[in-house]
Design goal:
about 15% strand; signal; disordered N terminus; 8 strands; alpha/beta; globular; hydrolase; TIM Barrel
Length: about 375
Amino acid sequence: MTAEPPGGRGLPRRRLLALAALALPAACSTAPSAPAPPSAAGAATAAVPVPSSAGPVVSTAAVPSSGPPSATPSPSAPKKAAPARGGPVPATAGKAMFGSYLALSGRSLGQSLALRRRQLGREQRIVHVFYPWDGYVPSSEPAVAAASTLMVSWHGAPYRQINDGSSDRVIARVARRLAGMRRPILLRWGWEMNGDWFEWDGSHNGQDPGGYVRAWRRLHRIFGEQGADNVAWVWSPNWNSSPDTSWNRFTRYYPGDEFVDWVGVSGYDFFSESPRTLFGAVCSAYGERKPIILSETAAVDHGGGSKAAWIRKLASWVEDTPAVGAVVWFDTDTQGDSPHNFRPDTDGAALAAYRAMARRPRFGG
């Protein structure tokens, strides 16, 4: 199958806005003493409504409880197990899954995976693929090892086509396909919704983040009705918003804790942005409640060993940021007319840094 063009087609058009330094909560702190994130046995989180405040939201408050403290339970009262952080793809405390989107010139997915396996001495824990909204979705991905988790970025559609029910059959069909794969799947639908380069972003849908939230929840419901309980939902904004206006803050698109298993973020080193600049705001807003996945990231070469240096910075930042539960590199040199080469093996120093990052215990999730 010829893959759909991946995310990032809008990269050259992105307004890359520097973020101010953030006062991060514990899970996103870079202090060595930062506590580890809650384990899978931690308390369940309550659904959070879409924020309506105008400014950037940097949440340092605890999620409200579902009610007042209860009296001492009866010995016979069964205890309800808290859901795992990450849903069907649980996060592991202190570890980050490591993977990539692989599209290398002249190589199939299987050949690309084999190359990276030889170079890194390990499997990709996550393999990232892109599927069209209303087109061919395979029944399996035989090139992806059973021990690897498949991350599917499923293209979105205009909100009205979803919210009026006219796309219910499309949604149900894809839900059955993914359920039929019988493997845990990270589903990243309608990513980078706070940009202005996709038909499912707010700019192309009447500046209505609430419409996106309703669409997300409709998809979530239909997937549940189709028995797609192997799917973990990844909500994944871009690191900065375009346009950078109050209605388009990424927090306004959040569907609510009940409907999200992982919070992702896209962020690339185009102009020597630090990992903290790229990922700090999303981590700050949600890292106490949800595991964070760097769902698209990579570095361009600015010369002088810059790519290797940035990879080392990324590895160190993830080491010191316990909220991060997964890192997915955008490993490609085939971005249409884009001049950027995101491969980590463009020079020996970059590959050595990438290999060292992949082999760190922190990336053994």
